[in-house]
Amino acid sequence: MAVLPQTLNLGLPAGIDIEKEITRLKREMNAVILAHFYQEGRIQDLADFVGDSLQLSQQAAATSADVIVFCGVLFMAETAKILNPGKLVLLPDLAAGCSLADGCPADEFAAFRARYPDHVSITYINCSAAVKALSDIICTSSNAEKIIGQIPPEQPILFAPDQHLGRFLMRKTGREMTLWTGSCMVHEQFSERKLLEMKEAHPLAKVLAHPECREAVLRHADYIGSTTGILKTARESAGTEFIVATETGILHQMQKECPGKTLIPAPNDGGCQWGEGGACSECPHMKLNTIEKLYVSMRDRTPEIQLDEDLRRRALRPIERMLEMS
Ligand code: 13P
Ligand code: SF4
After folding, report:
1. pLDDT at position 283, please?
2. Which residues of the chain have pLDDT under 70?
3. Are 217 and 199 in contact (CB under 8 A)?
4. Pocket residues for ligand 1 (CB within 6 Å)?
5. pLDDT of amino acid 277
6. What pLDDT does 272 receive?
7. Strand, helix or coil at 281?
C-alpha cells in the first residue's frame, strides 16, 4: 500500500491509497493498463502488461477492454487508438512526446518521400500518426530486421526517422537504405569514452544496448536489441553483470527478473541534462506520466486520444502491414 502525503496539486484527497483506487477504477471501467518499460516502477507494477513498442501495439490490437490506459508516449497511445477507433484511449499526460517523432514533421516527411518516388518507406513506430499515414510499413526495433528481409532486394528503401537504428539495420541486413537523420535525445547521449572506462572497471560485464544508440557506442555492445530483447538477454545469459545502454526505466523490470545480477546504467555525455533532480538517461517525455496523473486520467476519463477518421484509416494500413509481417 502506498499513501500519498501531499497530492493537492492534482486535487487528490490527502491519504488516498492510489494503487487501490486505480485497481478499483480499472475494474469499474473495464480498462486495461498498458505500460512501456520506461515508465516509473509503480506504474509498471500496476499495469496489466509491460512491454516494448511492438508488444504494446500487439496487446492494443488484441484487447477486449473498453478503455485502454496507455502509460507511454503519444505515438504509442496514438497507435492504440488507430487500432481501436471505438475505444476510449487515455494517456495520463498528453504532452508526453518523443524527440524522434518531433524531429520528423509530416510536411517535411512528405517532401522527403516525394524526392524518392520509387522507394518503399519503412518507418519506425516512433513517429506521429500523420507520418504513419504517409508510410508504407511501420516497424519497431524488434521486428525491423525481419520486415526488411521481406522486401525484394532490388527494391530501394527509405528509412525514417532514426538514423542510428537505420545504420544499425544497414549493417545487420547488408541493405542500403536512404535515411532520415533523426535521433533520440536520450540514446544519443551515451558516451563511448565513459563506456570504455566503465568496461575497464567491470571487465566481466556484458554491454546491452538499444539500437537507437550511436554507432560509437553500439560497436562495444555484446547485445543490441529492443527493450524486450535487452531484458531477455540479461535474464537468460549466464553472465551476472551488465552495463545497460538504454533508458533507465528498464532497470526496474530487469532487477525483478534478474535477481542477484548486477545492472549498471551506461554513462552518458551530458550529465543530468534535464536539470536538478533529473536522473541521467531518463526520457523526459516518458517520465511526464506519473502514478498520480494515471489515477486522475482514469477518474476523469481524460486526456483522451482523438484522431481524425480519415487520418486514422490512412495510418492503420502500414501498422496492419507491420503486424502481418512481424
Ligand atoms: P522499444 O520498442 O525497444 O521498447 O523502444 C521504444 C523506444 O522509445 C526506445 O527509445
Ligand atoms: Fe522517444 Fe527517445 Fe523517449 Fe524513446 S527514449 S520515447 S525514442 S525520446
Report:
1. 96
2. 1-9, 271-279
3. no
4. 52-53, 126, 140-141, 184, 210, 212, 226-227
5. 40
6. 53
7. coil
Give the residues across from 260 on adjacent strands: none
Give Cα 293 distance to the centre of its chain: 19
Domain boundaries, the chain: 8-97+286-307, 100-185+311-325, 188-281
Q: Which fold has domain 188-281?
A: Rossmann fold (3.40.50)
Same fold for the domain at 8-97+286-307 and the one at 100-185+311-325?
yes
Whole-structure pTM value: 0.94
pLDDT at 2: 45
The CA–CA distances, whole Å, from 108 to 125, 180, 288 equal 17, 10, 27
Helix, strand or coil for residue 70?
Answer: strand
How many angstroms is it from 227 CA to the middle of ligand 1? 6
In the CATH scheme, what architecture does the domain 100-185+311-325 have? 3-Layer(aba) Sandwich (3.40)
Ligand 1 centre to CA of 55 (Å) is: 11
Distance 24 CA to ligand 2 centre (A): 31
Nearest residue by C-alpha to atom 5 in ligand 2: 283
pLDDT at res. 280: 73
Nearest CA to ligand 2 atom 8: 98
Q: Return the CATH number of the domain spanning residue range 8-97+286-307.
A: 3.40.50.10800
Q: Which of 79, 283, 288 to mutate to test the pocket of ligand 2 (most atoms within 8 A of CB)?
A: 283
C-alpha–C-alpha distance, residues 85 and 230, integer Å: 32
